[in-house]
Amino acid sequence: MRMTLAVLGTVLAATAQAHEDGHVLAGEHAVEEKSLSEEVWDLMLPPADAAATITVEGAYRYIHANGYPLKAPGHFPNSGNPNRISKKNYQLRVPVNPQKTGRATPTNHAAFGIAVNGVLMDPATAEFWQNDRRSGWNYEAMGGACRLGLDKYNAHVQPDGTYHYHGIPAGVLTSEGGRTVPALLGFAADGFPIYGPYGYSDPQRPSAMTKLRSSYVIRSGVRPSGPGGRYDGKFTRDWTYAKGRGDLDQCNGRFAVTPEYPNGTYQYVLTDTFPFIPRCWMGTPDASFMKLKGRGGPGGAQARMPPPRGVAMSGQRPGPGQGPGFGSGPRPGGPGGGTPCSGS
């Protein structure tokens, strides 16, 4: 498959692009001119199901993928998800040496990043209480309230055929040996690497592995509007950031060394509790990720909603639930009653 060929190219490329610390990341290689024979060979290859290549050219890492996983996904459509997977043509890029901006930028329902297998990481859903986007009560994909038809890899399919992760990509984690060494799972839209859920217990040196903890907690008390009832984690607004409660900051990140970054790097961490996949960036997301939705993406206008309270975000704070989200497809505007999570 094309991914296999890309990895093989890494081994064979003697001039592979190195990072500033001289370490080459697995699965990537420098861009090299192809010979005529190589181009002919590419034309002779049959189309592959999974296709993802990661190359480095100058200051950017380029990610070309069709969004189909290397390991066979679950069956779609299924009883909780009526959509079929369709292959995409992702042409993405991120900086090789990203920089923190000193503030957190909310993802606002955009894709947070992409896994090394070429599948998007997209934590939010389009589902709101009683189909009312203006309520601000956005259902959590991993919160237990929705039947979203997730497969064993914590992924499912949007109405436009986009296969995407809502939680830790279990298949990628297994392939990367994530319990024995920190597992590089992908890259965020701002270029920082994505690891998790395990990391070195001492972030400054290779050490015993530990499961890293998010610093988000469920609020106490009762919801003041919308669905009412006690906060229980079913909605995004049920959660709040409690600085220092866990190992990670409000974007589920920390600075630590890894096999790929022996001098250390800021990294995002996927966790098995909220936020699962981060809901904000500490760097500047590349425009190529924003273009995944065009002016609103696969379902219409891009949704914008405030992050969980207690998190200081940069930029304008839009009103809750303006437009459908990226996670599970559009819903009719305005309150509609019923079960907003069924068949998404």
What would you say this structure looks like, in words?
The chain is mainly β. The protein contains four helices and 18 strands. The chain has helices at residues 2-12, 36-44, 170-176, 287-290; strands spanning 28-30, 52-57, 60-65, 90-95, 105-106, 113-115, 120-121, 155-157, 163-165, 186-188, 193-195, 198-200, 209-211, 216-218, 239-241, 253-256, 265-269, 280-281. The strands form five sheets. Strands 8-9-7-6-10-11-17-16 form an eight-stranded mixed β-sheet, with no helix packed on it. Strands 1-2-3-4 form a four-stranded mixed β-sheet, with helices on one face. Strand 6 (113-115) and strand 7 (120-121) form a beta hairpin. Mean pLDDT is 79; it is low at 1-24, 26-34, 40-48 and 294-334.
List the helices and strands and how they pair.
Layout (H helix, E strand, L loop, with lengths): L1 H11 L15 E3 L5 H9 L7 E6 L2 E6 L24 E6 L9 E2 L6 E3 L4 E2 L33 E3 L5 E3 L4 H7 L9 E3 L4 E3 L2 E3 L8 E3 L4 E3 L20 E3 L11 E4 L8 E5 L10 E2 L5 H4 L54
Parallel strand pairs: 1-2, 7-9, 11-17
Antiparallel strand pairs: 2-3, 3-4, 5-18, 6-7, 6-10, 8-9, 10-11, 12-13, 14-15, 16-17
What is the compact description of this entry?
This protein has 344 residues and is mainly beta. 9% of the residues lie in helices and 18% in strands.
Range of helix content: under 10%
Distance between the termini: 31 Å
Number of structurally distinct domains: 1
- The gyration radius over C-alpha positions equals 20 Å
Structural class: mainly beta
| Strand neighbour order, sheet with most strands | 8-9-7-6-10-11-17-16
